[in-house]
Each structure stands twice: as structure tokens, then as C-alpha cells.
Amino acid sequence: MPLTTTFEANRLLLEGSLALSEIEGVGVRVDREYVKKTIEDVGHTIRALHADMQKDPVFARMRRRFGDKTKLSSADQVAKLVFEDLGYTPVVMTEGGESEDPNERRGRASASAKALEHVDIPFVKNYLLAQKYTKLVTTYLGNIMQEMVQHADGDWYVHPSYNLNTVVTFRSSCNNPNYQNIYKRDPAFAAIMRKAYRSRREFQLGECDYSSAEVKVAANYTLDPTAMREAMDPKADPHREAACKLLHLRPEQVNKYIRNTVKAAWVFAQFYGDYYLSCARNIWFQLQSPNAVVEGATDAAGKPLHVLEHLKAKGIKELGDCDPEQRPRPGTFEAHAQQVEEWYWGVKYPIHTQWKRDWYNEYLRRGGFMMKTGFAVNGVYKRNEVINSPIQGSSFHCLLKAMIRIVKLFKKYKFKSRVIGEVHDSLNLDIHPSERDDVINLCRDSMTTWLVKQWPWLVVPPQVEPECCPVDGSWYDLAALKEQDGIWVPADADKWAAKYGDWSLQS
DNA sequence: TGAACGAGCCC
DNA sequence: GTACGCGCTCGTTCA
Fold first, then answer.
1. N or C: which end of chain A has fewer CB within 10 A?
2. How many CB atoms lie within 10 A of CB A321?
3. How does residue A324 score in pLDDT terms, banded at 50, 70 and 90?
4. A116: nearest nucleotide, CA–C1' criterion
5. Rounded to an integer, what distance in angstroms lies between the CA atom of residue A458 and that of residue A213?
């Protein structure tokens, strides 16, 4: 018997569609003049980079090979140039098309940023930068120009469309324009793009994010006691702990760069089913950075002690061969990562590990699985999909369920404030300053206290981190808030004051 | 003109 | 024995 989606789950999607269509109607204000100006500026930058490339001796070789067809934006040509003509050794290959013969390789050497990262010549650096700026103009800025419309108030808005029927894990997706993939991690590009999205006039953009949404939901599935404790204890720092194990450091020796590297390349990667070999390779690669130093330690010359030097002293002198066919050699980082992996799943999170086995075996037996939010998933899925999709899906459903209530209550209370968007585990708002505390409390309580009452399976309680920008600010100006004597104020008061003046001005 | 592919951004 | 997953949008290439 195939598993059946519950009535409740169906109703969640129906009501979710209604709430999302209201949000689509509201739209997000954009700064049309800024976008136009930025497209011009970035255009100059791209032309300058292309001019530099054409002066480069390497360009002459490109001309010899491709003649009139030479194109500075062709990944195919750059890959051939670098890895065939210039003789660099390819380390990343492309997928290539379908093939009857599994032994046949159809891919070519990749021209991605990762594949070209170690090709240290100006021509390639300029190529990568030009490509990145091109993407910025054609996709991100271009989409705003294509999609924006003028409202009766004279300002310009985009109205992203949200879908609940396109994703196999029962998450949402977003298009025309996609509001869910705007630069965030690259500071320079995040600044350029996020300044284009503005609050309505006399409003403040706001955001209510679930903190570590998927980690907490995962703990609700596995009930691993260590994971549950870490998810509930604000002082727990599993990323730092993993960094200590992996790099033979004491907690106070872990700087921000190291912690972030381990968080992304070890904790999350392992959590999503990656394994020691690719983790070791990625971390080793990140450790080449000059930022990878041991906090508070210096080398013989009095300079900050690099983590690679520190590891050498601990007997780890090289990455290792990273050959899936061979056992890792002792004394390599690869071998060390394998040992840490055994500790991680065998000792630190044994219940989580057991849950993965049980959950997958149960899927194999029944041919499907049920999400805690009532969605039935029947069909053929890979092991990691079976383990990850209920966690991803359920995390989004927490936001969706709360969002439905929030949209209804905003209407009921006749708030001027509006929900303007959603990014899987965060809610985006235009907040009228006069309603600010009420709006944030309503969102926070709906996403936490109220939700837990609806879904008692949330034994690890969700948490919300509100942010907002100054009146008439942009998405780039978001700053974290904290609750103080019943009202919401900037978490870092000094930083806020230095940038935007006194908080009392935001009214 | 359309499909396939490669590339890069988000959670 | 494993080899994170899910999306959207664009430019290039080729039929």
C-alpha cells in the first residue's frame, strides 16, 4: 500500500498558496535609478576587463586557435586554451551528456571558478571576474529591469512568483524574478544587489529567520540526545568542537575563518551525507588561505602560526592521495579525517547514525516515507535523498504554517505592515515603524510558541532571529535585533548608532 | 528556434 | 559501501 498524504498536509499547501498569492500581490520595492546606474557602471567594468584580456599575450594564442570565433565569454574556449594549449592539468571535469556506455567519458575539463582557481595568470583571473560581473548584470540586475512595474504611488516594484508544486521535497520555489538566490555570502556582490531592494517609503525592511532550522528539525526526527542538547543549549558550539578535533586545536585557538570553514566543509557536508575523502580535500584546500592561522599563536619568526604548520608539528604533513580505491596512508590529513568521521558518527552522534540506518531500511521495506508534516513520499530515491528531504521539507513547512497565520492576522489587525517574501526558513517584511514591536512579536510567537502547540512533534523548540533595516533602507542594511524590556532594539547598539544614528529616529 | 549543457547563486 | 540535496536563469553551442 502506498503511503498517503494527510488531509492536514493538503490543506497546508492550499492555504499556503493563498497566503503566497497575497504576498505576490504586495511585491518588493526596487530602486530603479540605482539598478540602471549600476548596470552602466558594471558594464564599464566588464569592458575594461575584456580590454585587459585582449592586450594579454595569452589572447594571441586564443586567436590563433579560434580565429574569428574567439569569444572572451566562452567557457568552452577558455577550457581548451588553459588545459590543452597552456598545458595546465585539469582537476575538475564537467558532467557531459548521457551515454549508453558507462566507461565512456563525455565531459571536458571544466572552466568553472573552482577548476580555474589555481591557474594563476592574469588572463584567467580577468576571465573569471568578467564572467561574474556578466552574471550580475544579465541575471540579477537584468531580472529586476525585466520584471519591475510601477505602482500608483509612483515607485517601482517586482512581484516574485512563489510555487508549491515544483520541488520534490515539498519546499517552495520562486521565479520571475527569483527572490530566493540573491547574493549573500560574497560581501561586495551582496552589497551591490541587496541595495537594489528597498523598503516601501516610510517603512523598514524586516526579516524573521529560523536559526539553524534544519539542524533543529533533524534533531526532532532522530531524537539524538547530543544533537538535541546542542540544539537547545545556546552555549553549545558544535562547529568549534569539530574544528578542534579536525585540526588539533583548543577551543580558544579557533578563529572565525577556521570555524566557518569547518562548519561548511565538515559539519554541514557530513550532516548531508558527504564523506571524509571529499571533506578532507575541501578543508585542505580552504586551509591554504592566509586566514587559516592558529588564534593566539606565533611561529619562530613571530608571525601568526599557520594551521598547516601547526598540523605539521602534530604529524600531519600532507593531504594524501585521496584515491577512493586506496586506503589512506597514515600521517595524512585524509587518514585523520577518516578517524574523525568514525568518532563523529560512531561516538558523538550514535543515535543519529542509527536513525539514518533505520529510516533508510524502513523506506526500502515500504517503498516510501512520511514526513512529520504529513506528506507522503512514494517512489525511487537515493539514500541521501531519503534521509535529507524529510528534514528540508519539514523545515520549510514550519515557516509555511506560521506564515499563513501571520498573513491572516496582519489583515485582521489591519496592519499597514506586509509580508513581502519568503526564503525557505525566513520571512521578509515591510514593517511600519509604528507597528514594529507588535509585528515582530506576532511573527516570532507564530513561528515558535504557536507553532509548537500545533505540532507537538517539535520537541526541540524552533527559534527566531529578527532583523530590520532603517526607515527607507535597503536589504543590505539589515541588522540583528534583540528584545530589551519588551521592545526590540539593535543587538549591536553602537554599530547601529555609528551607521544610522540613534535608534529612536526609527519611528 | 529550441534543446542540451555548463556555470553560479540561494537554502 | 557511501560519494549532500533541492531549485532558477542565463550564455554558448549546435542541430
1. N
2. 14
3. confident
4. B7
5. 12
CA of A58 to C1' of C11 (A): 23
d(CA A227, CA A221): 11
Long-range contacts of A446-455 (CB under 8 A, 24+ apart): A446/A402, A446/A405, A446/A406, A446/A409, A447/A208, A447/A210, A447/A398, A447/A399, A447/A402, A450/A402, A450/A405, A451/A398, A451/A401, A451/A402, A454/A401, A455/A372, A455/A373, A455/A398, A455/A401
Q: Residue A273, CA: closest nucleotide via C1'?
A: C4
Q: What is the pLDDT of residue A273?
A: 83
At residue A326 the predicted structure's pLDDT band, cuts being 50, 70 and 90, is confident
Residue A134 Cβ under 7 A from any strand C atom = yes
Give the CA A9 to C1' C1 distance in Å.
35
How far apart (Å, rounded) are the C-alpha atoms in residues A244 and A259? Answer: 9
For strand C, is any atom closer than 7 Å to the CB of A138?
yes
pLDDT confidence band for A265 (50 / 70 / 90): confident
Q: Which three cell numbers, joined as nine digits, stand for A230?
A: 546542542
What is the pLDDT at residue A107? 79
A132 touches strand B (CB under 7 A): yes
For A92-134, write each residue's pLDDT tens digit.
Answer: 888 875 554 545 556 789 999 989 988 999 999 999 999 999 9
CA of A34 to C1' of C4 (A): 38
- The span from the CA of A46 to the CA of A200, in Å, is 32
A353-362 long-range contacts (CB < 8 A, ≥24 apart) are A355/A221, A355/A222, A355/A223, A355/A224, A356/A222, A356/A387, A359/A221, A359/A386, A359/A387, A360/A386, A360/A387
